[in-house]
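Reopening: structure tokens for the FE2/S2 (inorganic) cluster complex, inputs below.
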Amino acid sequence: MSADPASIRVRYPLAPGGEVTLSIAPGTSILAASLAGRVPHAAVCGGRGRCSACRVRVLEGALDQPPPDSAELATLRPLLARDPSLRLACRLKPRRDIAVEPVMPVGQNDQSPDLTGRLLTMTVMFVDLRGFSRMAAQRHPYDVVFTLNRYFDLAATAIAQAGGRVDKFIGDGIMALFGIGEDDQSGPRAALRAAKAIAAAMRALNHELESELSTPLRIGMGIHFGKAILGRFGWGLNGEAAPETAIGDVVNIASRLEGLSKTYACQLVMSEAVAQCLGSDGTRFDAHQVEIPNHDGLICLRVVPQADDIPV
Ligand code: FES
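Re-run output (same inputs, fresh job):
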């Protein structure tokens, strides 16, 4: 048993380089412990309890741990008949000392922190061009390509100038990351500066294309702040490493917030965690609480009708 009641020992007796013991604070998952302690540990779904890649065999201390919740049970059910000692490392937060063995093999190259992923604080922003499909159906394909590239160029420039990076283009949408690994509020502030600049750039673009467009281009954005896993997941082309990206609850919630900008007919929906970087200025925007699929509890958000009104 750990001598310090405020810490819990997680032992990996069969770790590749020899036994490893880590001390973790209560409330820390086994997967977070492995990632922080550089113990090779597979994880594919970003700790959402869906992929089962992080499963461990509990070698000691199983009866002292909290029982699996319904999400963990649902994912493990097909496997438990063969091995009842299994738990999901991303869901299991031990309350007493425990010894475990990660089950899924981690390849030699996968031992790079890039491939096992690193749990980092970051701000995630999604941007979407509204009504693009309708515009694409009504205009000449080359006009569509021209307009789309102008929008991508303006939005990506605004993101880069605010200190962020484009993670990926998804159809007519953009996912961007800010303040990776920074625990203070610089990430949320940078993302809000980008949102404000994108809104201003879109207004200028609409003015420029006024005679060409039957209706102005509109955007919807969502921003959330928290911890996500950053790593290289998937396949790279021509044997190259897969591009680095972020996965996890923060990414899913940011994407949902962007979707909610349609519901609220606004340019931006930011989580309360992001709005806090504005101090009392953040409270001028309407607050709501919503349920997000696959997320426990309600998310507090703030609705920004026009992103160029953000006081950053
Ligand atoms: S179930 Fe996917 S990382 Fe745990």
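Residues 43-45, 47, 49-54, 75, 88, 90 surround FE2/S2 (inorganic) cluster (CB under 6 Å). Helices lie at 30-36, 70-80, 113-116, 132-138, 141-161, 186-208, 249-263, 272-275. Marking as resolved unless the reporter disagrees.
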